[in-house]
Amino acid sequence: MDSRLEAEDYALAWICALPVELTAAIAVLDEINPRLPQDELDHNAYEFGRIGSHNIIIACLLVGVYNLTSTANVAYHLRRSFPLITATLMVGIAGGVPTLLRKDIKLGDVVVGEPIPGCRGVLQYDFGKTIQAGRFI
């Protein structure tokens, strides 16, 4: 561990939705780094580490609060404490996106969202279920 690391040494952040995802994220770190100070208004809990040559900050959503507002709050406070972060990834087990028109995305598939005109690159498909005739409610 290098105790000389500072906030400026981190450009990547990883946000997890679930504690089990946080456990997995910590397990893939090559090295765990010492904690760094954060903004007094930032109540996120962070893990600091290294994967290869990249220092990374890992944060997790509050247990039981899995929505866009919670995710936005974690990302906002992360940037408040660590303004030099250039890339933030939301990594987790997620779910699937069934469709009748094209190939389904199944649990376990790797999906990368890329913004294009008219689409933010992320499909929110939660808090519902598929019923008869493939209709989602």
For the secondary structure, the number of strands is 5
- Rg (CA only): 17 Å
Form type:
elongated
* Strand percent estimate: 15-25%
Structural class, from secondary structure content? Answer: alpha/beta
Strand ordering within the main sheet: 2-3-4-1-5
Could you estimate the helical fraction of the residues in percent? 10-25%
Order of helices and strands: EHEEEHE
Kindly give the count of domains: 2
Average pLDDT taken over every residue: 81
Number of helices, where a helix is a run of at least 4 consecutive DSSP H or I residues: 2
Outline of the structure:
By secondary structure, the protein is an alpha/beta fold. The chain has 2 domains: 7-90, no CATH class; 96-137, no CATH class. 17% of the residues lie in helices and 18% in strands.
Descriptive notes:
The chain folds into 2 domains: 7-90, no CATH class; 96-137, no CATH class. The protein is built from 2 helices and 5 strands. The longest helix has 14 residues, at 68-81. Helix content is 17%, strand content 18%. The chain is an alpha/beta fold and 137 residues long. A hairpin with a 2-residue loop joins strand 3 and strand 4 (54-60). Strands 2-3-4-1-5 form a 5-stranded mixed β-sheet. The model has no long low-confidence stretch (mean pLDDT 81). GO terms for molecular function: catalytic activity. Keywords: Membrane, Transmembrane, Transmembrane helix. It comes from Dactylellina haptotyla (strain CBS 200.50) (Nematode-trapping fungus). The chain crosses the membrane at residues 12-30, 51-69, 81-101. This is Nucleoside phosphorylase domain-containing protein.
